[in-house]
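Milestone 3.1: sequence recovery, worked example.
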């Protein structure tokens, strides 16, 4: 599932305000963001 930038930014902001696990979760979001960009690049190449 691809996330749009608005969703990702909302997630980052929410996590930084509400979660004691913010570092771990934000790194997971970064990984998902990178994976989404990679997937979009592959779709563009098809």
């Amino acid at each position: 599932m691809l996330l749009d930038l608005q969703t990702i930014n909302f997630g980052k902001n929410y996590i930084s305000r509400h979660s004691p696990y913010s570092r771990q979760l934000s790194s997971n979001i970064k990984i998902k963001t990178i994976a989404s960009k990679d997937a979009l690049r592959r779709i563009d190449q098809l």
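The radius of gyration is 12 Å. Helices lie at 5-18, 22-45.
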